[in-house]
Fold:
Amino acid sequence: MDSATGYLTTTVDAVVNWARSNSLMPMPMGLACCAIEMMAFGGPKYDVGRFGSEAMRFSPRQADLMIVAGWCSYKMAHAIRRVWDQMADPKWCIAMGACASSGGMHRCYGVVQGIDNFMPVDVYIPGCPPRPEAVIHALMDIQEKIRNEYSVTNDYSSGSPHAELAQPESARLTADGRDLSLNGSGLVHA
Amino acid sequence: MPESLKFHFTPVDEAHADEKNVHEKASTDVADTIDILKKEFPDGISDVVVYAGEYTVFVTRDSLVEICTALKETLGFSYLVDLAGVDRFTEDAPRYEVYYCFVNIHAKKRIRLKVSLDEDDPVLPSITRLFKAADWNERECYDMLGIQFEGHPDLRRMYMPEDFEFHPQRKEFPLLGIPGSLPLPPRTPEGGLTMDPFAAARQGSPVKSYQEPESEF
Structure:
């Protein structure tokens, strides 16, 4: 870049996280009455479009945030898990309402006592059902989580970077001061 | 306070039985229908209970289908409103009850039949041939209480998976279920999915997790 026109330095993480956090596409897993509040959350009054999440994706391939809204029966658990497994990484999950978080008032044989029994959950929302503001708050929590993630420098997809970084600095640095665990662009070796 | 907004308790003890119930409705007064039934099926009706202006006709198991046929075809009770089972869980009386609610739409009348069933022999004739609406209710009753309906065209479970071993609305079934009786997906991503966790529902064998199900398109 020409220095006369000025330039900007940033980390790739900052850009990627900014983009990811402001374009979360929710997969609405509406199972019960919480789904009605979830619709309000996506509707014009609460307008989740302000946070870039107004585009509900009914295909797991296009979604990166699953909102499990409502009680989940043992029969449904398998379907939810299949949909979750089909979502592309990175992905996040909100357990919306008391039932999805803990079984809630459905303390009985047919309802899974919390969806974290079979899938990972990032944010739990209390309430029966939670107000749309609470869902927006959970979404903002997810955004906060994404903004603090190391998405590129600690890319685990090609092995654990910690194995090299865990070594003492004397073992990682070469004689001319190069860090063996980092490649030419300062990123962790792929 | 206007009279219509007052709350009236339904009398429960014998002392008030002779008083007129304020909730009583003309639609539940089916004394004449019961007289006809009693005349036609003297052995089929074991008891008639009147409570709060509502008649409950206790019917024997053997004459249930005949009485339902008469109700539908000659007495005009052509609409089956509800059918479900009860687990009384008492020692002195037969344990299960199945009740049938019928409505005569033109005469605006309602009638309730009840069949008592012994714990050791919870078998009833199905009335799906008379009332198509009984189909799912009988399946629900079978699922929840384990009452067998003979002659039902498709007596599968309604809610629970087909390979579930228990009947959850029986009183001895623990409210929180029996651990391990219902499969959950694996807890770890490496666990692999159970593609068809309830394979017995389709008389099939479980699909392996690495096999995608066949597309319908």
In short: Strands of chain A lie at 26-30, 65-69, 92-96, 123-125. Helices of chain A lie at 12-21, 34-42, 74-86, 97-102, 132-147, 162-165, 169-172. Chain A is about 35% helix and 10% strand. Chain A touches chain B at residues 74-75, 77-78, 81-82, 85, 107-110, 112, 117-119 (CB under 8 Å).
